[in-house]
Amino acid sequence: MAKLPTCRWGIITTGLISSWFVADLVLPRPDAKAHHIIQAIGASSLRKSQAFADTHLKDTPHHKPALYGSYAEVCADASVDCVYIGSPHGVHARDCLAAIAAGKNVLCEKAFAINASEARSVFDAARRAGVYVAEAMWLRHRPLVADLRKLLYEEKVIGDVFRATSDFQMYVDMKNAPATSRYRDLELGAGSLLDIGIYPLTWALLMLDSKLPGDGNGEGEGEGETPRIMAAQSFVEGIEVTTSIVLHYASSGRQGVVTSTTERKKGASQIVATIDGTDGFVEVEGGAPSHPKSFTVYPKWTGDEKPQGKRYDYESAQQGFIYEADNTALDLAAGRKESAVMPWSETIRVMEIMDEVRRQGGCVYPRERV
Ligand SMILES: NC(=O)c1ccc[n+]([C@@H]2O[C@H](COP(=O)([O-])OP(=O)(O)OC[C@H]3O[C@@H](n4cnc5c(N)ncnc54)[C@H](OP(=O)(O)O)[C@@H]3O)[C@@H](O)[C@H]2O)c1
């Protein structure tokens, strides 16, 4: 049996997303594509790193990470193969550039940066340093997405796709959120679009582009088309809280309708995306657009009753971060400097679309004001 690659991770920050990422990596599983080792944890204080390890690694005594009271020490640790960055998106570029300067490979949370210009500066630095950098857009790595794309574009199970919709809802009490909260602080990238709207946007791109990186041989084949964008945004306390986007694909006429709001609580389970085709439709079910758990393929609905569909389930013990982690380990083992699934050009394409949405909607971050 072929030996699995091993990736020794340095975790930067001890917030919510770092805890989810680590929880997935340490769960045992029979179908592992790589070994993951939590090699180091770095936070703004040693006390926080210790508390994180005590909470999230207490049942996994074989993970004995070095604990640091700074991010720089994680980057300086020669035993770390790849740094995982879980800081707020307003400081992603800063944290990526520091890791790259230390010669480290990087997997950085979404949104990858505040805007396309910041993202480009990080990729330029990675190119010069010869290190791997990728955006941790976990949705792209899910087997559910790859299987659904095959059904839509190879088997054409709903005919020609003509529309996709997705909405992400979350409630943030903006008026009472502390000024330091990443949901409130514009320097940290506050706003629904970069935080949650990026997922419905990703659903639209994944469902409407017939060719994408990661479709075929794992070498990043296919390039997405940049759609025309029409967008509106609304604000509370100067923070963008609701974004609506229409995407229009000039080559095919396909449309995406993408919305996000931090003004509404969501249910535990819902339809997180729909895809319409000339011969049928697909509903994707899950906890949120970032967390799809199943999808159902329906024939064309012409009568009164909803037709019978065929359901595909993807429930697993992990939340789903393991797929991006596995793919990062495989990229590194293959010597790639970009993710085969989420290459730099895709991150830039998404950031440019969000730049255009914000240009039309009026969301400007303080550092963008000239
Ligand atoms: N993939 C997903 O589904 C998903 C879900 C949630 C969030 N995210 C992304 O992950 C990132 C972090 O979100 P989160 O919910 O984990 O946030 P969080 O719980 O607030 O944690 C963020 C961490 O960043 C550091 N931090 C906090 N405030 C900071 C500041 N003012 N300046 C610099 N660093 C600061 C802190 O690290 P220390 O521990 O070092 O003090 C904190 O623990 C965001 O970019 C978000 O978009 C992704």
Automatic annotation (TrEMBL):
GO terms for molecular function: D-xylose 1-dehydrogenase (NADP+) activity; nucleotide binding. Residues 152-282 form the GFO/IDH/MocA-like oxidoreductase domain. Its EC number is 1.1.1.179. InterPro entries: Gfo/Idh/MocA-like_OxRdtase_N, Gfo/Idh/MocA_domain, GFO_IDH_MocA-like_dom, NAD(P)-bd_dom_sf. It catalyses: D-xylose + NADP(+) = D-xylono-1,5-lactone + NADPH + H(+). The keyword Transit peptide does not apply. Keywords: Oxidoreductase. It comes from the Eukaryota. The keyword Oxidoreductase applies. It holds the Pfam family GFO_IDH_MocA_C3. Residues 8-134 form the Gfo/Idh/MocA-like oxidoreductase N-terminal domain. It is an enzyme of class 1 (oxidoreductase). Belongs to the Gfo/Idh/MocA family. This is D-xylose 1-dehydrogenase (NADP(+), D-xylono-1,5-lactone-forming). It comes from Anthostomella pinea.
